[in-house]
Amino acid sequence: MSRVSFVGKNVVLDVPAGTTILEAARRAGIRIESPCNGEGKCGKCRIYVEQLEPAGAVLIPAGETGQNAAAGEAGVNDYVLACLSCIDGDLKIHLDDAERESVRILSEGRGFSHEISPPVRKEYDAAEGLTRVFVGDERFSEPGDSSGEAYGVVADIGTTTLVAALIDLASGRELASESALNPQTEHAQDVLSRVKIASEPEGLDTLYRGISRELNRMIAELSQRAGVDREHIYEVVFSGNTCMLHLAVGVSPEPIGMYPYTPALMGACYEPASRHGLRVSPFGRIYLPPVISAYVGADISSGILASRLFDRRGTTLFMDIGTNGEMVISRDGELSATSTAAGPAFEGMNIESGMRAAAGAIELVEIDGEGRVSLGTVEGAPPVGICGSGLLDAAGELVRRGYVGASGRFARPDGAEGGDGPPDPEGRLERDGRGKLRYRLADGVWLTQNDLRQVQLAKGAIRAGIDLLLESLSLSAEDVDRVQIAGSFGYHIREQSLFHISLLPESFKGSVEFVGNTSKAGGEILLLNEGYRRMMEETARAVRVVELANDQNFEKVFVRSLRF
Question: What is the CATH number of the domain that holds 37?
């Protein structure tokens, strides 16, 4: 047995030889992010290890990922990959780089004024000395007068983040909100990877229990902050993509990972909260909004509601940009939708210096006409990495100033190696140890050629989805009257970056508005107004779904869309 100490956590445990550091951390209940689920591809489980005894344990240097992961051994005190490094001797593990706290998560989105008419009612019976509670068709009683205490929770279950809000069902007032990372990101970053993991019973149980524990923690925090008894929370609305809804209630998402991509769960239904261990009223229930298709989920149904796409005149393009890119076009209220797998690049994953939007993440990049760089970081902290909005900014500025060509390749600086690119007065375009060009944004923070490729793949998928959805309706980009961009990532990017990298057509300039977290905003409306539930169930069934997997032109349009 080897003794492992997690410095800063006051946790020490003994593990058998051959246990990976990532496995040891999970046994100890310590979070080390591993979006590739331990395959050594992402490099995000980088940690510092010291006092290795005896020497000779298999430690993988933090710079070696993917096919190079087994290329060598780290030194006695070194940065290593937790997922691939096996323990054979006593270790001290430092978690400064492994755990990133205070991630910025968007909790607000645009909604609209509506009547408050929830399916929960309470009446005090003075003669009996009890309160009658009506939750849908269910009836039960509580001792005493609790008629003024009726609450609900809306939970926006994103692939990367969670947002929960406690709502007073009588007034519609939000009493408290809480946000966190989705704990499933420890095992896989994107939807398809989670579908693969959850296709096995053990993997499904791991992901399901992780989300249940975190939601319970968030509900407890909300209740304590607002001074509310959790037994007076009668409904919880889960708003999330199709895969997340499956995982949140323990249903295997395996069918959405294979043709014909038919979800096992279509939403528009209720689940007893007690069945899933949610610590709310014993009679509480979970409402799952309607799912539109395997990859256009309840979060988009909520977004359609919050943005009132069903009664919009003219042509509106609604987009939610994240690890998935979902798009809905409203043409005088008639809805068509599609989705693309953008991948985790926009979340800062699969990027060499990528990180989430935590303190020190570069979120704004500007390059002037002389090649001088200005940076903005989250909380104004010294730069330690780059998040999704900064990644798009950086790529857009490099393209705009000519340091990166339309093909996505770096242009060598004027006068250097015969290059014909623009001047580089600060010497930021440099070569790494393998002779590959990269652009230095700050000390220890680079944008590499592979990073640019990841941006191209993500933006190419989204742009192809836009073009093919328009084409399916015989529309051109010029026919679009307005563009609404939802989601946390969309809210923090600068509009100009979307055009610099050609993620959006030029004709959309001047028509873009950022509408925030419409998944949560729409979920709140569904929590507070029962009539909108019925209306959205009908609306979701009427949406025309365009399956890009069946489009013979997708590959051609996707390749065309890769160009900056």
Answer: 3.10.20.30
